[in-house]
Amino acid sequence: MPARPTDRAEALASGRISLALEPVEPDRARWSILLGIAGAASSATEGDFFLAELRPRRGNDTVRRIWLQPEDDVPPVRDRIERARNGAGLIPSQMRVADSVITAMSEALGDDLVLCSPREAHEFGLHWRALGDLHLRRGYALAARDAHLGEQFVAAVGPFLAELLGMGAPEVDRHAVDDGTLVGDHAG
Predict the structure, then answer these.
(1) Which of 42, 143, 144, 162 has the greatest number of CB atoms lying within 10 Å of its CB?
(2) How confident is residue 163, by pLDDT bands cut at 50, 70 and 90?
(3) Rounded to 5, what percent of the chain is helix, strand, coil?
(4) CA atoms within 13 A on the CB side of 124
(5) How far apart are the C-alpha atoms of 10 and 7, rounded to whole Å?
(6) Closest by CA position to 17, among listed 146, 163, 154
(7) Residues of the chain above pLDDT 90, percent
(8) Helices and strands, number each (H, E), in the chain
(9) Are the CB atoms for 186 and 154 separated by under 8 Å?
(10) pLDDT at position 43 over 80
(11) In a 3-state reduction of DSSP, which class is residue 156?
């Protein structure tokens, strides 16, 4: 089971591991993944998704939420979508962090939504839409206790890491091609 970003950082700092993927702002990322909103295909609409679509309507008691995966409970992702949520006039409880990927995705099989990549949505049978409010990416850099070891790791597996991270683009919609972008100088 993959470790949460905070657990990876703690393990690296304590010396239990020598390399770790750390979440970073997209402009500092070696690898990045486009994020959008996904939900049950039965309630699918087309076009970009705007957070204001989740504002409660008069006479409708249903409050839909956006679930973040544990991997996205980091400042480069969480803080940006929280600012957009606040700007769209949503209440804080309309955004939750799930305990696991499975929990986040299963919530999206009902009335709620999940923040994820096009590939993740495809793998769970969800309908994915790009965010219209902001361009959001999950960014990663390699943190290494030994810089030489980090360089060797990237040289050996860097091109394959994009696939491991789920950056392969399924045929989801016109925005999915952006999901396969390997950022930085380590493409191919």
Answers:
(1) 162
(2) confident
(3) 40, 20, 35
(4) 26
(5) 5
(6) 146
(7) 63
(8) 5, 7
(9) yes
(10) no
(11) helix
Domain ranges for the chain: 5-180
Mean pLDDT taken over the chain = 84
Residue pair 37/129 in contact (Cβ under 8 Å)? The answer is: yes
CA–CA separation, 61 and 182 (whole Å): 42
Of 67, 74, 79, 77, nearest to 5 by C-alpha is 74
What dotted CATH number matches 5-180? 3.40.190.290
Burial 93-127 (b: 16+ CB within 10 A, else e): ebbeebeebeebbebbbeebbbbbbbbbbbebebb
**Residue 18: its pLDDT value, please?**
93
At 166 the pLDDT is 73
Length of the chain in residues, anyone? 188
